[in-house]
Amino acid sequence: MRYWIAILILIPFLTLAQEHNHSEDQNPFGQSTEYVCPMHSQVVRDEPGTCPICGMDLVKKEPEQDHSEHKAEKSFTVPESSQQAIRVTTAKAQRKDLQPQLMAQAQVRWQESAQRHIHSRAEGWVEELHADVEGQWVEKGDKLYSLYAPDLVVAQDDYLQLLDSLSDIRNGDNQQSFKRRGQQRLRLLGMSEAQIKALEQGGETEYVVDYYAPESGYITSLDIQEGMYVSPGLKLLTLTQDNQLWFFADVPARYSKQLKTGQMAHISSEHFPGGHWMNTIDYIYPQVDPVTQTIKVRIPVNDSIDRLREGLWATAHIELEPVRDTVVVPVASLIVTGANNRVVVKSGAREFEVREVTTGLRVGNQIAIEEGLQEGELVVTSGQFLLDSEASLQGLGLDSSDNDAPAPQHNH
Q: What does the alpha-carbon distance between residue 147 and residue 134 come to, in Å, rounded to a whole number?
């Protein structure tokens, strides 16, 4: 009898103990303890284990608290254990000066104004080609080609007849006027003053007329051969003067705001040890190359073609103005999408926020932030893509309403 009485007395205490033990498996908010994967928040278990997707150990899920104020600011909570699991690192936004160190590939090109295109003034056939090698140097007055042109033959005959009939014209002024018209016709068909004078003295028509170089230069384009029929619309060859070269440098488009005409450029080439050229940028082309995403800048150079050849590659160092007193963060912290640029800001021990930013100049592994970030704030430099995805899952991300996926940043 005493035994049963003792059991009846202990039953209430055993019930209380069971309820106490059960309460230990619940968090202060009356919820049972759950374990979640740090990488895949959709994997939730009631007991410790490993994630079936990535194999990582599940971590205890922290109890949810009322963060209505932070929700309004699009901030979210990540347990410290989860931060350690995904190896979150941060860096402080600093205010400093950025000194761009711009190095660009450059290539030698002829100056457009240094090129002279040679066309025939009359239709006819090339009887002989005297300058027949592309790259050949010719002096002013050197013979280029000989042409048989029926119109030029007729013009010579008419001029000789005019000279014979001048004696019939008593007015001296009229004589000079007719003579000038005849000479001008021959000039327009390509004859030189010396050839016209020889025609007047010799009195015989030249059926094959020689054409000469109007200036000195290299033959940089040769488009005719002996026996070809030519017309005024056909370019026969191109003469390019010496010491008339440009360097064209391809500058990344992100430096467009820092580029200005008049900036000094130092150019060197491994093909000429010790060779160094200096000059200022005289023109910045307005368009961006759609393939290389570069802007072309033009730098004149005074040097002989004997040293520099068209097409030669060189390296240009352009002196850009520094960007003063700007907020700077590591490039690694930036999340770039088709919709915006953003960073993940750590605002507390467990508090994070996805923040849209406006970026400026990039120098090395640092980038200027023009809007969206204050000096001293902490930005996430490792693990930010997982945190950004977590924010999107909770409806707190900047891309919660679109499908733009963040693209990792790489240093090129």
A: 20
